[in-house]
Amino acid sequence: MNKGDLEGLKIRLTEGRSALLSMLDEKDKAKQADCHAKIKKATAEININIPSMIGKEKGAACESKLNELQAAWVIFRDGRDNNVIPALLAGRVDEAKAIGTGVQKERFARVISIIDGLLAQT
Fold first, then answer.
1. CA quadruple 122, 104, 90, 28: dihedral positive or negative?
2. How confident is the model at residue 18 (pLDDT cuts 50, 70, 90)?
3. Residue 42, CB half-sphere, CA atoms under 13 Å: how many?
4. What DSSP element (H or E) covers 76?
5. How far apart are CA 21 and CA 96, in angstroms?
6. Nearest to 112 by CA among 4, 11, 1, 36
7. Which fold has domain 3-121?
8. E strand or H helix at 108, and its extent?
9. What pTM value is reported for the model?
10. How far apart are the C-alpha atoms of 34 and 40, rounded to whole Å?
């Protein structure tokens, strides 16, 4: 497994999460849009990177962990994109913050935990 790929993935995830947290606290619509653009950019890269890693890996244990990472990422991404961001853009800031700092925080921690586990194996 390529340690650099995993570290890059972790950086993109963290950038996207930071942009979301900034977006949740931002009142200015233009700055919210900038944060949203950063989230979309990081997401596009992650959506490519995880599946490409799955295809390269040899060994059932590693492949299994990468599949687990992909599943956890999809749950996190879809929760953010289908719940947190729409609520925020609709002006339901408290709802967006509750989801974004509640269940989404746990989902993000799960994704990072899987990556950290994979990094420990490299």
1. negative
2. very high
3. 22
4. helix 60-79
5. 10
6. 11
7. de novo design (two linked rop proteins) (1.20.1440)
8. helix 103-121
9. 0.94
10. 10
Domain coordinates in residue numbering, the chain: 3-121
Q: What is the pLDDT of residue 57?
A: 63
Alpha-carbon distance of 18 to 42, in angstroms, equals 11
Please state the separation of Cα 57 from the chain's center in Å: 21
Alpha-carbon span 57 to 30, nearest angstrom? 41
Q: Indicate the residue type of 50.
A: I
Structure tokens at 59: 């060994």
Integer-rounded Cα radius of gyration of the chain: 15
Q: What is the pLDDT of residues 30-85, one digit of tens each?
A: 999 999 999 999 999 999 999 999 877 667 778 899 999 999 999 999 999 999 99
Q: Of 58, 99, 101, which is closest to residue 82 (Cα–Cα)?
A: 99
